[in-house]
From TrEMBL, chain B:
SUPFAM superfamilies: FAD-binding/transporter-associated domain-like, FAD-linked oxidases, C-terminal domain. InterPro entries: FAD-bd_oxidored_4_C, FAD-bd_PCMH, FAD-bd_PCMH-like_sf, FAD-bd_PCMH_sub2, FAD-linked_Oxase-like_C, FAD-linked_OxidoTrans_Type4, Oxid_FAD_bind_N, Vanillyl_alc_oxidase_C-sub2. This is Glycolate dehydrogenase, subunit GlcD. It comes from uncultured Thermomicrobiales bacterium. It comes from the Bacteria.
Length: 429, 487
């Protein structure tokens, strides 16, 4: 259903002056172009947009930084694009309590900068911090290498405020780090891809910034022995923040990067332990600190970055850490046979693998199916995080999901008319 | 909706066909064992108690309850402190204490798969020889079950650094209130779709019964250092806590006890706590030895600066256990000071600690009752123990406890950090949440448990009606009366 920007602006009244406009090409989400774009600056305004959409039975697409617009299925409809970028305030930061609340549209980089002034940070390190928003991080549950030490979004979020599909504003959790009053709404919203409500703000527990940090990198060794070393490291009393194995889809040498944070002496001592354990593998090792280290980890996000072209897919694979090695063997084998190239980064401590593959459409379809089967058989799963429409038309972005019936019922409760981000999530939710 | 006696008799016969005579309890004197959990002021005998041994038995019993329209209440070890496992009139209690198998230990991936009746401590005992442990360590860990921990999202002293039950549960097999067996989450770190384990953990038995749980195991640290630090006052101890956290140190635990709590504990356990101290802190550091050494120096300096009168460092694992024993036995030890007491579980932002402790003391004086304080100081989780020597003073004590919770909420905190809302804290939910908030939360219950037969009447003061969910099965009145079956 096409609506005119004027109709929505009229419905929102004076408070929304300048916040509503006709949607442009840049407002399309996975090929679906809404007619109107709205950028509310208060939660009441978000609620008013949803009340309007609900009454008119319009579909609403939600966008934060737009870095994950390719995640999931293309939406099955979309009349209004609701951008959260007008909600960009730091609501509260209590350094003594190590908690902070940000509005959904605040970028991670801005949030970190504010927290950094008190020597603290939100212990999440996904790709593209200057574009990624807090709401987007919660909705997609993205994480990065240091999830090994600090946990994922679900482990850091302690409170959430949402606008429900019918415009009701509601909160779950609170602003203390320990709280079991009521169902855990923050966890339900984490990774819900905007299908249950518009996240308007979120509260997190924080960590002190590390006193020092260093990363040891072992290069020039095959993936197999490096994966074994990663499993071995997991079983030691070392306390790494990240254990990443990186490589290309084909044969050839790979690298292991292990990061330590904490006191200088502890980081140094642990770095030496890793070098000693790696010595028999015969690779070349380097230790990075300060800017070199920061540069390394910024670039490390490579395989996790968006930007699918007609011949590229991006995948996120969840594996049990000890099964990464055999899974990579499947990748190498299929990539050679199907002439697919690419790069991967395996967070071998916690088991997530980011992967980007390039090849013919038919080859990509085949390799995704094979890699998914190889993950599932070992208790893991594979999600297509970005792919051209031709591939998404035949490959389920999420794969088979257990408990889908319950998830549908959750969706029916929160969004009975299927207003929010329709069709993008598991099972077409 | 109360079931009639003939109907319960019929249901009992059908349940017995599923679990055998040894799995069913129906004699009134035996049922009485199940009339309360760890919160003994609330009592209600169930109509029946079932002790299934397999997932299939749980499933069949749930289906029978549903067919008869009889409410059912899951129960683990019954140590809950908020009435979560309190029976409702005419209900079937489904006790999981016979499901005690450990299905799988996967050290390479640091996972373990257990049944709900497995006791918390057994998990650690199982993997300790290999250098691993299960991190959430409620003080009741020798007796409480993993199923109960899951339902309550239980915490413990070491949750400051390592997180609560929810941070350690990866996946579960559950029997839904509809009687379906469903996997939620999995063995891997992420599973696509909504975070159903994330909402099942802490759902206080209202979303179904978990029958298998995949837990994360944690590697035992290279070095562990536990200090017992004495102060003249809780204010001084509180200052030390703020100093330690402010210095960027994340100890594995910081626990505080005030003088009254020290008196009780010492009498009960002889752990060697200084009886004249106004407060003691237990500060535990763990990690790499070099780092623990450095941080220990900092902690001692901060404590001294805050006025520590004594710092004792546990010499070895044995003394560490002794120090911890004093803290972990604190609730039970209250019996030495008063035959009756109420344990509360409020949470406050840590920086509000000194102020809230003063307000609690003032409230105690106002009510003329003593309040002992034992708490997880690092995360602001208070356990005020309201002592009332005379049983007749219960109402007064309860009012005081309620006022303490309202104080916590007024300071931006929560009414419960780990014990759950259950029936006990229901009246205080509206201090934290609006009607719209609670209606929203209950949509989750409606998705899992639309008929509200699974642990009804808990947590939320007003149950939300779930509306007509497509496919929802409503028993025919004749079925309810036991006249007709649905075959
Ligand atoms: C002395 C003492 C000290 C304590 N210390 C702590 C502490 O430090 N930290 C802490 O967090 N708690 C503590 N507790 C509270 C209590 O031990 C925990 O809440 C514990 O997790 C309850 O486990 P349980 O097996 O006894 O469960 P129960 O009391 O039997 O049940 C608790 C809840 O879980 C539900 N339930 C039980 N099993 C299942 C299942 N399989 N599936 C679904 N729902 C289920 C029940 O319906 C009920 O709502 C303490 C209690 C005592 C008595």
């Amino acid at each position: 259903m096409a609506i005119a920007a004027g109709t929505l602006a009229e419905a929102l009244g004076a408070r929304a002056v300048g916040h509503v406009r006709a949607a442009g090409d840049g407002d399309a989400v996975a090929g679906v172009r809404p007619t109107v774009t709205v950028e509310p600056t208060t939660e009441e305004e978000v609620a008013a947009v949803l009340v309007f959409a609900d009454a008119e039975r319009l579909k609403v697409l939600i966008r934060g930084g737009g870095t994950q617009s390719g995640l999931g299925h293309p939406p099955t409809g979309g009349d209004i694009l609701l951008s959260t970028r007008g909600l960009d305030r730091l609501v509260e930061h209590e350094p003594g309590d190590m908690t902070a609340t940000a509005e959904a549209g605040m970028t991670l980089a801005d949030f970190q900068a504010a927290l950094g002034r008190a020597g603290q940070w939100l212990a999440l390190d996904p790709a593209l911090p200057s574009a990624t928003t807090i709401g987007g991080i919660v909705a997609t549950a993205v994480s990065g290498p240091r999830r090994l030490r600090y946990g994922g979004v679900r482990d850091q979020i302690i409170g959430v405020r949402i606008a429900r599909a019918d415009g009701t504003l509601a909160k779950g959790g609170g602003k203390v780090v320990k709280n079991v009053a009521g169902f855990d709404l923050p966890k339900l919203l984490t990774g819900s891809l905007g299908t249950l409500g518009v996240i308007v703000s979120a509260t997190f527990r924080l960590y002190p910034q590390a006193l020092s940090s260093r990363t040891v990198i072992i290069r020039g060794v095959e993936a197999g022995p490096l994966c074994d070393l990663a499993v071995q490291l997991n079983a030691t009393t070392l306390v790494p923040s990240a254990i990443d194995v990186v490589g290309g889809a084909g044969d050839g040498p790979c690298a292991l990067a292990v990061r330590f944070e904490g006191s200088r002496a502890a980081a140094e001592e642990q770095t030496e332990q890793v070098r000693a354990l790696a010595a028999p593998l015969g690779g070349v090792d380097n230790v990075f600190t300060d800017n070199d280290e920061a540069d390394y980890w910024r670039e490390a996000a490579g395989p996790a970055l968006p930007g699918a072209s007609e011949s590229t897919v991006r995948l996120k694979v969840s594996l049990l850490p000890a099964t990464i090695r055999p899974w990579l063997a499947t990748l190498r084998d299929r990539a050679a046979r199907l002439a697919v190239s690419g790069a991967w980064r395996a967070h071998a401590g916690h088991g997530l693998v980011d992967l980007r593959l390039t090849g013919e459409a038919a080859a990509l379809r085949a390799i995704v199916a094979d890699l998914r089967a190889a993950a599932v058989v070992q208790g893991g799963n594979l999600v297509v995080t970005d792919a051209p429409p031709g591939i998404l038309a035949v490959v389920d972005a999420w794969g088979a999901v257990p408990a889908l019936a319950i998830m549908r019922r959750v969706k029916e409760q929160f969004d009975p008319h299927g207003t929010l981000n329709p069709g993008r999530f598991v099972g077409g939710i | 909706m109360t079931a009639t006696a003939p109907m319960i008799g019929e249901l009992a016969r059908e349940i017995e066909a599923v679990v055998g005579p040894q799995g069913l309890i129906s004699r009134p004197e035996q049922l009485r064992v199940y009339e309360s959990d760890g919160l003994t002021v609330f009592r209600q005998a169930p109509a029946l108690v079932v002790l299934p041994v397999t997932t299939e038995e749980v499933r069949d019993v749930v289906r029978l309850c549903r067919r008869y329209g009889v409410p059912f209440v899951p129960r683990g070890s019954g140590t809950g402190l908020s009435g979560g496992a309190l029976p409702v009139e005419g209900c079937v209690v489904i006790g999981l204490s016979k499901m005690q198998r450990i299905h799988e230990v996967d050290l390479a991936n640091q996972r373990i798969v257990v049944e709900p009746g497995v006791l918390n401590l057994w998990v650690t005992q199982k993997v300790a020889p290999h250098g691993y442990y299960y991190a959430p360590d409620p003080s009741s860990q020798q007796v409480c079950s993993i199923g109960g921990n899951v339902a309550e999202n239980s915490g413990g002293a070491h949750c400051l650094k390592y997180g609560f039950t929810v941070n350690h549960v990866l996946g579960m097999e559950i029997v839904t209130p509809d009687g379906d067996v469903v996997e939620i989450g999995g063995a891997a770190v992420e599973t696509p779709g909504y975070d159903l384990p994330g909402i099942f953990v802490g759902s206080e038995g209202m979303l179904g019964i978990c029958t298998k749980i995949t837990l994360r195991l944690v590697r035992r640290a290279e070095s562990i250092r536990l200090s017992l630090v004495a102060f003249d006052s809780t204010d001084a101890a509180g200052e030390a806590v703020s100093g330690i956290i402010g210095a960027g140190i994340v100890p594995s635990a910081i626990e505080m006890m005030d003088n009254l709590a020290i008196q009780a504990t010492e009498a009960a356990t002889h752990a060697g706590y200084p009886l004249d101290a106004g407060a003691v802190l237990l500060v535990e550091l763990d990690g790499r030895a070099v780092e623990v050494d450095e941080q220990q120096g900092q902690v001692e300096a901060i404590c001294r600066a805050a006025g520590a009168t004594e710092i004792r460092i546990a010499r070895d694992a044995e003394e560490r256990t002794l120090f911890w024993k004093g803290r972990k036995a604190a609730f039970a030890a209250m019996g030495r000071l008063s035959p009756n007491y109420i344990v509360q579980d409020g949470v406050i932002p840590r920086t509000k600690l000194p102020q809230v402790l003063r307000e609690i003391a003032a409230l105690g004086e106002q009510y003329g009752l003593r309040v002992a304080n034992v708490f997880h100081a690092g995360d602001g989780n208070l356990h005020p123990l309201v002592l009332y020597p005379d049983k007749d003073d219960y109402e007064r004590a309860e009012h005081l406890a309620g006022d303490i919770l309202k104080t916590c909420v007024a300071h931006g905190g929560s009414i419960t950090g780990e014990h759950g809302v259950g029936v006990e804290k229901q009246p205080y939910m509206s201090a934290m949440f609006t009607e719209a908030d609670m209606e929203t939360h209950q949509m989750i219950r409606c998705a899992f448990n639309p008929g509200n037969l699974c642990n009804p009447g808990k947590v939320y003061p007003t149950p939300r009606l779930c509306g007509e969910t497509p496919g929802k099965y409503t028993p025919h009145p004749l079925e309810l009366a036991g006249v007709a079956d649905r075959f």
